[in-house]
Design a protein that fits this description.
heterodimer, A: alpha/beta, Rossmann fold, 37% helix, B: alpha/beta
Chain lengths: 183, 159
Amino acid sequence: MIFVTVGTQLPFPRLIRAMDAFAETTAEPVHAQVGGDDSAAEHLVARDMISPEEFDELFRSARLVVAHAGIGTILSAKRYGKPLIVMPRRHALQEHRNDHQMATVAALTHVPGIHIAWQTSDLFRLLSDHALCPASSQPGPSKAALIDGLSRFIRQRERSAVLRGDLTDASRYPAPPPERPSS
Amino acid sequence: MTIFDTNRSGRKTRIFAIASAGGHWQQLMELRDAFEGCDVLYATTLDGLADQFSAGPAVVIPDCNRNSRRRAARSAWAILVRLIRFRPDVVITTGALPGVVALVLSKGIGARTIWVDSVANAERMSLSGMLARRMADLWVSQWPHVARATGARYFGAVL
């Protein structure tokens, strides 16, 4: 089963139409959460919105997930170890308020298991590849560093420790003036 | 680690961790290891979501966005009630607007505050993040160049 999701906030007709066209060519069921898109999707098992439990269930049982470049979807793919094809929403096509998904995706080009479809033709190429590697649930060094930074702040006992600047980056504050040699 | 996880009065450090449903919430969940050994109360905007991640105890608060002051007020009220009851030492949020509201209110109860801007904001700090700037004792971006450009802290990213 292939699970298609465009998130809960905005429709993404370009992706849904492409997946509808693909579903026509395959016997594999394609379930889609279409997010308020009322354009006809004849070959998909299409749903407007789904509950968190159903989303979870579909995600778990999918062989492959195809989605917009939403962070929630990317983290779910890592959590469940699924291969994920992402197609970023384009501002120019009125698919989002800005092009932040393009930037997110550009930063994901080297993440294993996240396969990027910059455009519909990439999507069909990736869909025809049945050996796409799954995303990894292993936390990387970057995530560990973030957790460590937050953890240190949380464990500072008192507010004053923060205000004193124990945890603040030296670069945020001007360096103290150099001591004048006493002549 | 117990000694590090208690505050001066001897109780565990209390953390109020809040995020809107969706990607914001998922990122908060990714940060859970940072709360180890603390008393955490989670808050999000969608019923059933916290259960799905086995995050508890958790409360549901009404969602809000920039377009509706009325919803924001309802959301603020619900958050305020929780904050007063729970008395957190630390309030952490990954956004969006309900998180900003929580940080504003947290200032009033003397909690230390953390804003972690969504990793989705790869080019600039989010609007909510800019609003949260003055309310956050620790103001974090998940992108080094965004941190440099805004004066936020950067440690790493959830991806």
